[in-house]
């Protein structure tokens, strides 16, 4: 338990103050006023200690002038406090589980096993033997915990550490939230000093050499190999030269099947390859690449054997195809590169290092004169390593104009980076970690549990952070907004890397950790018992080998299927989270019974493990907040409604069937996000779900919208013969993102019975920012309403969204639209003025086989950055090239085009 965990415990204490007294172990005969006073004393004691010790944490800024003995005493008291709070939380949660489950008649058979678990966790741990029934009340008595907390508080106050703690010269550093660049979106990765390297590699990749050739970039960790490869990979000339470009990350643990799937999905998009054999996948890859000039980037390859296996995938056509490797190992590059170039990437010189530091700290603003002296000292200590410079810049950027901070970092940077000669920059990363505010630390360490080179979706990460209890209320901001702010803070500090941005606003969509940053996260998290990460190398280990009486982690991240059947509750009693990332196949019915061992779980991520039905024992997990499962059944068990604390429910299925949710799903009053992959939820609820913010996907019937009044994101299927459903959409005053798909079957079965006219009066709420339409058969006249939406930024029109061969926007102005996409739209003509889309940044048109050309006036939109065309008539591509050529003649070189035509 760290700061975030203690905060969660504080919230729980606050909620329990007015709860039944037996939860606190007080005698029911004691007066209500007396027991309430005791509980208030517990809460106030915890609160006082937290304010005095955590909010002025001296361990972040210890120097030779401070009293190490005093610091050790404070830290020891904090350890005692954390242990007491953790014990109290476990006892309360276990008993709450038993009480809630006992109220459910269907689950009373399981009550005894939960009570046994309560006793074992709360009693055996302290007394070393199985308790009798007389021990039950004593085992759950938090009065002893209250006394422990009081003792810690009194000892702490007796130390009179307030004066010492307040003297920390840099104490304010960890709480600074703003920086010169914190509100600016970086349009591209800040890259300095590698322009010549990039040109050399591009020239080698595109030279007139027909044979398949390999180019390698070699250098130590953190030197910028991946950054250089990314710059080359995304170069516009490289994009134009190669028909196919694929990026594959290999890392230390090579998985052939995973690499094959990466290649295929890069070429063809998301595919269902679960049942394909490795040989079949290899055949698919070979077929997709044959006859095309391709560029394959193989990032972070470690072993010669890995290359010998990989090279068999790639056809040797004499068409100028290339493979670009990055590696820390020179021998690997020498083995792979027969005719091509081995480029050894060196460190930055002082001038380039200073340029990088300034740009990352001040984001293009002029640096103050006094910063040069201290900055050059930092530059010298970083020895030209980009990653070291970047992470230290992340520390400085939080208080860029504070000379005191620059002096402190300059003085300490040398000792932190002393290990650079041995190729290690962990010390420099630790410097950045030590300056993290307390509210960010557990969020950051949590990322270390994800597999190496894992791209995590920002939205799902935020939901996980909230479920774990890392995010606290902050005024009127939603938990999701607070969490997004935390992530952006980590990005501003250069600890998290954005890999994919949202096309319309540049916001983060997917992120990743540098492998060295991940090592730091994992190391720190393991020290504190926060994470057990089971990777591919430990897949054969028994849990008894890694979970011991002295090491009981509270979160388990599984990257490879271990012997989970041997994982029983004595070793699982502390677990709060289980996250699985590999495809473990189907879990047996016997395995389902093991969920009773994890009664304290808050997070269960099993979306790659198949279950036939919702396991009965999963209904015992009453503390669960995040559940991701893959279930074969169309019906959800009513036991899901036992999970009253559930915030996020993700249901994965391979079939596009309708999923029947129990009618009392509205009992899940804390539910915020309801997600399905291919299936469609039948949402028939009897009372409003007031906290529900996201639904994907749901079948919307008359009146349903009244039951989801605060929905922000909605992906729904609508019956085209039911005019009331789509008219009710306008009532959703908080709705920001809508994906609306019409039911073609309903439309065909009813025929044109007058519902067409009603449908064309569809109402959209003014709060909408993103609108996606498909199979709605709307008239283009509906656009006269859509263009008036004051907040609309993204518009996507898919198959049969509208009927009619011509879209005329001459009298329509989409004032704030930034992103416009057509896909499979049956229009021949599009007429538009540049004034119709004054803020448009990105235009995408895909598979519109009847469209003749893009309106010439589109090129005159001053904000337009990209036109992307996929699989349209050649005349469409020609019109786009003409637009770009004319814009070049006018001096506008900001417009980029990306044309991919049928081959």
The geometry reads as globular
Task: Kindly name the structural category.
Answer: alpha/beta
Count all strands and give the number: 31
Radius of gyration, whole Å: 30 Å
- Low-confidence spans: 20-35, 55-66, 105-140, 160-189, 418-424, 536-541, 745-754
- First-last Cα distance: 57 Å
- Provide the residue-averaged pLDDT: 76
Which percent range describes the beta-strand content? 15-25%
Largest sheet: 19 strands, parallel
Helix count from the secondary structure assignment = 31
Helix content: 25-40%
Q: What does this protein structure show overall?
A:
Keywords: ATP-binding, Cytoplasm, Hypersensitive response, Leucine-rich repeat, Nucleotide-binding, Plant defense, Repeat. It is found in: Cytoplasm. InterPro entries: Apaf_helical, Disease_R_plants, LRR_dom_sf, LRR_R13L4/SHOC2-like, NB-ARC, P-loop_NTPase, WH-like_DNA-bd_sf, WHD_DRP. Its main location: cytoplasm. With about 900 residues, the protein is α/β, with parallel strands linked by helices. Among the domains are: about 5-175, no CATH class; about 195-345, P-loop containing nucleotide triphosphate hydrolases (Rossmann fold); about 355-435; about 435-530, Arc Repressor Mutant, subunit A; about 805-903. The protein contains 31 helices and 31 strands. It has a 19-stranded parallel beta sheet that branches. Strands 2-3-4-1-5 form a 5-stranded parallel beta sheet, with helices on both faces. The longest helix is centred in the first third of the chain and has 35 residues, at about 70-100.
């Amino acid at each position: 338990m760290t700061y975030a965990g203690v905060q969660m415990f504080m919230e729980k204490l606050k909620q329990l103050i007015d709860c039944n007294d037996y939860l606190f172990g007080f005698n029911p005969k004691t007066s209500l006023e007396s027991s309430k006073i005791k509980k208030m004393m517990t809460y106030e004691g915890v609160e006082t200690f937290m304010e005095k010790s955590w909010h002025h944490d001296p361990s972040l800024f210890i120097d030779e002038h401070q009293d190490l003995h005093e610091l050790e005493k404070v830290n020891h008291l904090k350890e005692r406090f954390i242990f007491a709070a953790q014990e109290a939380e476990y006892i309360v949660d276990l008993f709450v589980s038993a009480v809630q489950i006992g109220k459910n008649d269907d689950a009373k058979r399981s009550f005894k096993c939960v009570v046994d678990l309560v006793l074992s966790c709360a009693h055996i741990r302290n007394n070393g033997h199985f308790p009798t029934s007389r021990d039950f009340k004593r085992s759950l008595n938090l009065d002893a915990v209250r006394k422990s907390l009081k003792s810690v508080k009194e000892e702490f106050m007796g130390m009179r550490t307030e004066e010492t703690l307040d003297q920390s010269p840099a104490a304010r550093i960890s709480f600074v939230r703003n920086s010169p660049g914190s509100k600016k979106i970086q349009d591209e990765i800040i890259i300095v000093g590698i322009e010549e390297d990039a040109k050399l590699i591009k020239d080698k990749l595109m030279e007139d050499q027909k044979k398949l050739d390999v180019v390698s970039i070699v250098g130590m960790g953190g030197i910028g190999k991946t950054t250089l490869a990314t710059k080359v990979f995304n170069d516009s000339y490289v994009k134009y030269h190669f028909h196919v470009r694929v990026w594959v990350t290999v890392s230390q643990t090579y998985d052939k099947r995973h690499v094959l799937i990466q290649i295929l999905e890069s070429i063809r998009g998301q595919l269902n390859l679960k049942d394909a054999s490795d040989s079949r996948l290899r055949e698919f890859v070979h077929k997709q690449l044959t006859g095309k000039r391709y560029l394959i980037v193989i990032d972070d390859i470690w072993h010669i054997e890995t290359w010998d296996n990989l090279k068999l995938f790639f056809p040797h056509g004499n068409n100028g195809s290339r493979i670009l490797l990055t590696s820390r190992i020179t021998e690997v590059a020498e083995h792979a590169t027969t005719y091509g170039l081995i480029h050894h990437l060196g460190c930055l010189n002082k001038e380039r290092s200073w340029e990088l530091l300034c740009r990352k700290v001040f984001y293009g603003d002029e640096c103050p004169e006094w910063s040069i002296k201290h900055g050059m000292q930092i530059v010298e200590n970083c020895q030209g390593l980009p990653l070291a410079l970047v992470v230290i810049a992340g520390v400085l950027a939080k208080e860029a104009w504070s000379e005191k901070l620059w002096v402190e970092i300059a003085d300490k940077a040398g000792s932190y980076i002393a290990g650079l000669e041995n190729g290690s920059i962990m010390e420099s990363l630790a410097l950045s970690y030590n300056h993290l505010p307390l509210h960010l630390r557990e969020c950051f360490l949590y990322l270390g549990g994800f597999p190496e080179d894992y791209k995590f979706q920002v939205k799902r990460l935020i939901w996980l952070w909230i479920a774990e209890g890392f995010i606290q209320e902050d005024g009127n901001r939603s938990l999701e907004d607070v969490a997004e702010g935390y992530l952006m803070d980590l990005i501003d500090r250069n600890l998290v890397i954005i890999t994919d941005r949202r096309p319309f606003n540049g916001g983060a969509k997917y992120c990743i950790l540098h492998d060295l940053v991940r090592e730091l996260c994992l190391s720190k998290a393991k020290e504190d018992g926060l994470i057990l990460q089971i990777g591919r190398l430990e897949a054969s280990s028994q849990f008894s080998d890694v979970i011991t009486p002295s090491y009981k982690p509270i979160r388990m991240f599984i990257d490879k299927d271990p012997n989970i059947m041997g994982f029983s509750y004595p070793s699982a009693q502390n677990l709060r989270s289980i996250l699985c990332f590999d495809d473990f196949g189907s879990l047996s019915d016997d395995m389902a019974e093991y969920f009773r061992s994890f009664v304290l779980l808050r997070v269960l991520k099993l979306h790659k493990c198949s279950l036939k039905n919702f396991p009965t024992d999963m209904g015992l997990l009453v503390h669960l907040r995040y559940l991701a499962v893959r279930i074969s059944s169309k019906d959800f068990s009513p036991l899901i409604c036992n999970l009253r604390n559930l915030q996020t429910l993700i249901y994965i299925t391979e079939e596009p069937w309708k999923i029947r949710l129990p009618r009392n799903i509205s009992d899940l009053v804390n539910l915020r996000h309801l997600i399905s992959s291919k299936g469609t939820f039948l949402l028939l609820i009897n009372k409003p779900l007031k906290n529900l913010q996201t639904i994907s996907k749901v079948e919307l019937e008359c009146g349903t919208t009244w039951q989801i009044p605060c929905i922000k994101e909605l992906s729904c299927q609508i019956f085209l013969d039911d005019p009331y459903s789509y008219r009710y959409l306008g009532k959703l005053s908080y709705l920001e993102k809508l994906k609306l798909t019409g039911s073609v079957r309903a439309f065909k079965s009813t025929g044109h019975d007058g519902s067409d006219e009603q449908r064309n009066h569809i109402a959209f709420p003014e709060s909408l920012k993103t609108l996606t339409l498909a199979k709605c058969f709307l008239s283009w006249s509906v656009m006269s309403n859509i263009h008036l939406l004051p907040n609309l930024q993204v518009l996507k029109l898919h198959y049969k969204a509208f009927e009619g061969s011509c879209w005329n926007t001459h009298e329509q102005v989409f004032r704030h639209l930034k992103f416009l996409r057509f896909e499979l739209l049956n229009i021949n003509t599009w007429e538009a003025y540049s004034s119709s889309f004054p803020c448009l940044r990105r235009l995408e048109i895909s598979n519109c086989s009847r469209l003749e050309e893009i309106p010439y006036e589109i090129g005159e939109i001053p904000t337009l950055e990209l036109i992307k065309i996929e699989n349209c008539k050649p005349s469409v591509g020609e019109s786009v090239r003409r637009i770009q050529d004319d814009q070049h003649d006018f001096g506008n070189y900001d417009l980029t085009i990306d044309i991919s035509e049928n081959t």
